[in-house]
Design brief:
The protein is built from twelve helices and eight strands. The protein has helices at residues 11-24, 42-49, 75-80, 91-96, 101-113, 126-130, 134-144, 151-154, 175-193, 195-200, 214-218, 235-242, and strands at 2-4, 33-36, 54-58, 85-88, 117-122, 158-161, 202-206, 225-228. Helix 1 runs parallel beside helix 2 and helix 7 runs parallel beside helix 9. The mean pLDDT is 96. The structure holds phosphoenolpyruvate (PEP).
Length: 246
């Protein structure tokens, strides 16, 4: 269960979140919990999560280890800050910052090289869905992005299916729509890496996940977890999502 805070919260707000959140998820042994705050909050988040099973991730990385790349942050830097995960290829990065499937692949490899677990995002735009092109778009994104990984690398990633029309809009994909897309992605992964490896990979659903819809999404066989934006900013609401079985 992963939370993407996007560009929200200061270090002080991060500390306050963890103080409220920690006790609420202390008994959650059924899943991994990852919180991805903005870069300036990573150190505080790592410090606040110490002694718990909560893990911390970044929201992006650059593929070089270091160098003259003003404004960028590398995988080794994120790892050294104590984070374990990093989101790669979020649709907001694709939409506003020129991310492509090719750069998603470079960042994914860089994350793995740094010892981070990449959460690699794919998903279609509304116009793709309306034109009946969802499956084709997902396959393209897999083909040009994730499929560039070798078998060993593939086994270490997490995939997030996030239909762009459902992100931050309050429009959740129905559990059936999400499950269909997850099945397409798993099938594509099976074609490239074999059905065993594809069955083992975790695919998260993201797009307006809330406390009141998480159960029905998680009831789908192919949905292994969720990537939550807005509802992960509030300790109570994200804890309710994490604790969905109870
Ligand atoms: C996200 O940012 O990855 C996301 C799914 O956002 P939201 O839950 O707000 O739709």
């Amino acid at each position: 269960m992963a939370g993407n805070w996007k560009m929200y919260k200061t270090p002080a707000e991060t500390r306050a979140f963890f103080e409220a959140f920690r006790p609420l998820v202390a008994a959650a042994g059924h899943c991994e919990i990852v919180i991805c705050p903005p870069f300036p909050d990573l150190a505080v988040a790592v410090d606040s999560a110490r002694g718990t099973s909560i893990q911390v991730g970044a929201q992006n990385l650059y593929w070089a280890k270091e160098g003259a790349f003003t404004g960028e942050v590398s995988g080794p830097m994120i790892r050294a800050a104590g984070a374990t995960h990093v989101i790669v290829g979020h649709s907001e990065r694709r939409q506003y910052f020129g991310e492509t499937d090719e750069t998603v692949l470079k960042r994914t490899v860089a994350a793995l090289d740094a010892g981070l677990t990449p959460i690699v995002c794919v998903g279609e735009l509304l116009e793709h869905r309306e034109a009946g092109r969802t499956e084709a778009v997902l396959c393209q994104q897999c083909l040009h992005g994730i499929h560039g990984l070798d078998e060993r690398q593939f086994a270490q990633i997490v995939i997030a299916y996030e239909p762009v029309w459902a992100i931050g809009t309050g429009k959740t994909a129905t559990p059936e729509i999400a499950a269909d897309a997850h099945a397409v992605i798993r099938r594509e992964m099976g074609n490239r890496y074999g059905t065993g490896a594809a069955a083992d990979i975790r695919i998260l659903y993201g797009g307006s996940v809330k406390p009141d819809n998480v159960k029905s999404l998680m009831a789908q066989d192919d949905i292994d977890g969720v990537l939550v934006g807005g509802a992960s900013l509030d300790a109570k609401s994200f804890a309710t999502i994490v604790n969905f079985p109870s």
